[in-house]
Amino acid sequence: MSLYIKYLTEIETRKNELGLAPLPIDSADLLSEIIAQIKDTSNEYREDSLNFFIYNTLPGTTSAAGAKAAFLKEIILGESSVAEITPAFAFELLSHMKGGPSIEVLLDLALSNDATIANQAADVLKTQVFLYDADMARIEAAFKADNAIAKDLLESYAQAEFFTKLPDVEEKIDVVTYIAGEGDISTDLLSPGHQAHSRADRELHGKCMITEEAQKEIQELQAKHPTAKVMLIAEKGTMGVGSSRMSGVNNVALWAGKQASPYVPFINIAPVVAGTNGIAPIFLTTVDVTGGIGLDLKNWVNKVDANGNNAVDENGDPVLEEAYSVATGTVLTIDTKAKKLFNGNEELADISSAFTPQKVEFMKAGGSYAVTFGKKLQTFAAETLGVAPASVYAASKEISHEGQGLTAVEKIFNRNAVGVVSDSSLHAGSNVRVKVNIVGSQDTTGPMTCQELEAMAASTISPIVDGAYQSGCHTASVWDSKAQANIPKLMSFMNKFGLITARDPKGEYHAMTDVIHKVLNDITVDDRAIIIGGDSHTRMSKGVAFGADSGTVAIALATGESAMPIPESVKVTFKGNMKGHMDFRDVVHSTQAQMLKQFGGENVFQGRIIEVHIGTLMADQAFTFTDWSAEMKAKASICISNDETLVKSIELAKSRIQIMINKGMENEAGTLAGLIALADKRIEEVKSGAQPALAPDENAKYYAEVVVDLDSIDEPMIADPDVNNEDVSKRYTHDVIRPVSYYADKSVDLGFVGSCMVHKGDMQIIAQMFRNIEKQNGSISFKAPLVVAPPTYNIVDELKAEGDWEILQKYSGFEFDDAAPKNAARTKYENIMYLERPGCNLCMGNQEKAEPGDTVIATSTRLFQGRVVADTAEKKGESLLGSTPLVVLSTMLGRFPTMDEYKSAVEGIDLTKFTPPTEEMTTKFEVPIKMV
Question: Which helix (H) or strand (E) holds 613?
């Protein structure tokens, strides 16, 4: 059977079973058959083949794009004749293919001896930005050989005509509102975790956004208001919290955006999204990738009482009142020049933050990628011509304040900044390009990153990236047919691209399903590094790490750079002493609670860097704080360590990188060996005093300073989704932190210890608790299931060597077997302990879940509705978050413990302790800074 006939069968299956259009074509073998049928004017499939060729072939570096570009070249040169595709139309089709084979063909034609064809090709090339080093080298060589077309191209690029000749952003944009949810909207609503397997199939994945009813309502609004764009809103909340998925924005764009090209199916751009409290930082970056608009509505404000104070309810929470309505179906106008939101002639809000010069450029260019590549192309052309590049793009925003020191993040950005004009150090608010040191791609967004890399015609990792890793942790729990279909292809692509991969495409080393954040934390060997990772919990405790969408990850891999503003910082310090029965996780939760109390309910962490002065806590344990900073809605977090602790943390990272090398995970480029060399260099810098551990200047300026009182933390602290709060906007926010005594006699249906919030010490705590309780009671039993998923194989190996794994095995009713991994997700749990494979497990909710309606106590980070546990008609599922000892004890009791029970269970156990640094962790500010 021919590939084409198989494709037709697949089309019928998708249409009849799923109601979907034909899958876009990425295979050269299939497209070659289609091209042959187009050439055969009597072929019965010719008409459909023409449509597939023109409208349903993926661009970029897919093998199908190569076949399409070659055939279009034949048509332009007159070697093939297709009545429906004239040479002019062939050029138009090439112009929509973005890069890779299409650029190669256009350069072949532009640098040929046929003047007419060369000029036509040059006209198309002047509109293109996705050129790479090999393409630029061809143009440069031709220019040096006095080729007039090459000179013409360079002059156009130096003027950035590919950008300046684009139409400006419309001055007035009408929108019709659609309230997608009340309260914070997580990306799970827009792109559910349990549908992760379908993200690369954009049309199929789009079907899972919100609900089918919501999709129908959006379509009805579009039909009723054909000249307005539907704006999805998080009413009384923040849009896009908790995760970095580009699939969420892709889905919004699919339903409410516009098609990027008439010749590329299901790739839509330019959505409009909004929230009462704006857009979550990572999600806003993703909106920029698509050239969309993200609005901070501020349509609910604190109610003020007669005395001018904020009114509060019986729980002490601020009372909100509506400043203006955005009820579904309201038609509003965005004035992009005035940067205001209007209802008719009534001004509703200042939305200038959505229309900075940089963001307007993204909108004009159709997304941030085109601006990134355009700037690079313009710089190349100007340097080749020996001229200054035209002042076209908004200048990097460079802000410097005389006499003001630098925060830790400001120091990192200054160290990594590229293309900066000023000689002075830069402060928060500056907007710059920075070198990215470490990049991580996770496995359920990885297929989309591959698509992005293909679309931008990238074929290999940037040589300036120190290290990059492709994980297998999000699909670790269940090796089902979906994972078996997607993951090997992903690993093969990324391995070839130049990443260290969790799975070996050749099958020579053992699959490592370690949690991505733990691996990135280990391969980050410099406290001054910038890390970009395809997950919101990319929050390393060395350097500064930013969770990112799959597209931003692709840009970082392809260029080794990222563009972003330097964020403001909030300084967190500690006073007092931890009580012996407290775990560091309780300190982390209490930080959130104390911050909200200190600032009257305002989350000063949101959108900012949390600079936590951790002092002597090793990177593994400190990661518990930085990881939770995602739930604090912070943009990122930085740990300030003393010299001795930093060196120990880097030494530990070195040993774990060496284990990866010993397992056979090194690549041809010697990436892992290079990281060890960088680690040795950094250790020597610290020990010699040449470059001590990163610390802020003593006169750095912060947005706010939070002091956490350790003495006040006397009970285990629980992060509660508050699922039954009468105000729906206050559910699932991570802001409700309560002591364990609040939950007296509350039953527990399942416990989970695992994911990225735990470290080796947590596994050791479980072993110590078992020995403790075994000694007290003679045996151990569980009144609720306990799922334990160590974050990495290294931890399992170390526990086995040290004897702790043995007691875990003794009391487990299930232990993972790599030789026979589960091929179906568990739906029912017994009252036993499950020792699961290292990876994300329940935290992701894409494979394993608790039983619907369960009350779960977990060390996870996820409170989102339906993520760890779904609702039933009778009872909402709830995932409460706490420390490892609390989770373990709760499953033994089948309920939350009393304080006496808790203290007895942890007596003599070495919990994760934290002692605040006694010295001020700052450096002397000596270098005067001039005002730019």
Answer: strand 609-615
pLDDT tens track for 362-417: 999 999 989 989 998 999 999 999 999 999 998 778 899 988 999 999 999 999 99
Question: Per DSSP, which regions of 354-429 are E strands?
Answer: 417-418
Q: How far is residue 922's CA from residue 487's CA, in Å, rounded to a whole number?
A: 45
Q: Quick one: average pLDDT of 127-137?
A: 93
Q: What is the SS3 assignment for 681-702?
A: HHHHHHHHCCCCCCCCECCECC
**CA neighbours closer than 13 Å in the CB half-sphere of residue 11:** 13
Both tokens assigned to 450: 């591959």
Give CB contacts under 8 A, 24+ apart, made by 628-631.
628/588, 628/589, 628/592, 628/757, 628/861, 629/539, 629/605, 630/242, 630/536, 630/537, 630/539, 630/547, 630/861, 631/242, 631/592, 631/719, 631/734, 631/861, 631/863
Which residues make Cβ contacts (< 8 Å) with residue 715, sequence separation at least 6? 586, 739, 740, 741, 899
Region 520-544: mean pLDDT is 92
In the chain, how long is the greatest CA-to-CA distance?
91
Is the model's pLDDT at 210 over the cut of 70?
A: yes
Q: What 3-state class would DSSP assign to 84?
A: coil
Tokens of 117: 């064809």
**Beta-strand runs (E) in 687-810:** 704-709, 717-720, 736-739, 750-754, 786-789
Task: Please give the Cα distance from 661 to 673 (Å, whole number).
Answer: 8
368-385 helix and 281-289 helix, angle to the nearest 10 degrees: 60
Give the CA dihedral 508, 512, 517, 522, nearest 10 degrees.
-60
The helix/strand/coil state of 418 is strand
Q: Write the single-letter amino acid at 430.
A: S
Q: Which residues contact 5 (CB under 8 A, 6 or more apart)?
A: none
Measured from the Cβ of residue 356, the count of other Cβ atoms closer than 10 Å reads 15
